[in-house]
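User: I'm curious whether this sequence folds into something compact or stays loose and floppy. Could you predict its structure so I can see for myself?
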Amino acid sequence: MKYDFDEIVDRRGTGSMKWAVADGELPMWVADMDFRTAPAVADAIRKRAEHGVFGYSELTDAWASAYCGWWKNRHGFDCAADDFIFCTGVIPAISTAVRKLTTPAERVVVEPPVYNIFYNCILNNGRVVVESPLAYEGGEYRRDFDLLESKLSDPQVTLMILCNPHNPTGQIWSREELARVGELCRRHNVVVISDEIHCDLTDPGRGYVPFASASDVCASISVSCMAPTKAFNIAGIQTAAVMAKDPLLRHRMWRGLNTDEVGEPNAFAAEAAIAAFTSGGEWLDALREYVYENKRFAIGELAKTAPRIHVVPSEATYLLWLDVSAYTHDSEAFASEIRRRTGLYLSDGARYGGNGSDFLRMNIACPRATVADGVSRLFRAVEG
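Assistant: Here's the prediction. I'll summarize afterward.
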C-alpha cells in the first residue's frame, strides 16, 4: 500500500478536540479523521512554515484556479475563478448567509436528521428553524417533496440549507432530485445554501452532483460552500470557499463575509487548498477505497455480532448512521451509557433532529484496528 492508513497516529496531547477524552476511551464521534493528511498537503505546509515569515496573506490566482480545476475534473462542473470567495470555514459561511440573506425572525428550512450545527447557525442569529424531515421507510431515507413544498410555501421562509451529500445519512442526491428542489425554491423565492463539504468522500465509483450544476435554476438561486478540509483532514487550517454564479448573491456573500471578518486567509490556508486540489487526487482515491473497506468491515461485523443494529445504506461520508431503535428511542441516554460502560464515544442521533433519537453516528475514518475496537465495544455495550 502506497499510503499507510493502518498507521496508528497518537493524537492525545495535541490539542485535538476529538481526542480530549479519558485514558481508555475511544472517540468515534466528531467528523475528523485519524489519518495524516495527503503528503502533498503536508509538504506544502512544511515548505510555507520553513519560510519563517507569517505576515498578512493574500490569495493568488492559483487558489481559485485550483478550485475551478478540481470541480471541473472531479465533478464535471464548470466554474469561473470569479465565482469563488475565500472564507475561513463552511460554518462561518453558512452563518454569514443566514445573517446577510435573511432578516431577523424569518424562517430557514432544514431537512432533519441533519448536521446539528445548522440549527446553531439559524437560532444563534435570531432566525426560526423550519424542519422538513426526510422520510424514513424500509430502513432508508428519501425526500418528501410534498412536505418540502408545504414548508417552502410559507412566505416567511426565505432560505433553505441543503446538505449535499447528506450528513449524517450519507445520501447522495441525484441530479433530478436537486433540480426539483431548485424549482420548488425558485417558485417560492427561497435561496439555497448548499453545504458540499463531504462531496469528495463518496464511495469508490460514486460521484456527487454539485447543486449549482443540476440546472440553470439551481445555479441562479444558490450559494455553494466548498472546502478541502473534510476530505484531506485539515479542518484546523481553516480554509474554505463559497461559490455563487449569480452576481448579486455573490456580491452579498462577499460583503457579508468581509463584514464578519471571515474572508481573509491565514498563512497556510491557500497553500494547503492548492496542494490538495492540484496534487492530492491519488491520495484521496486511496483514502476513499480504505474508508469504503472500513464501512464494509464494520457492517459485516455488526451483522454478525449485533444484528438488531441496522446500518442505514449510504454512498458518501465516512460516517455510519446506526438505527438502534431495537434497543432505545433515547439515543442521548444510550450513547452516554455506552460511553460509561465501554469508553466508546459516539454521537447521539437526537442532536440531528428528525427521527435521530433512534440513531447513533459512528466515525469510521480511522485505522481498521480502531474500527474493530469500536465495533467490539459497541457489541459489548448492546449485549449488556
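Summary: DSSP finds twelve helices and 15 strands in the chain. The first strand starts at residue 26 and ends at 27.
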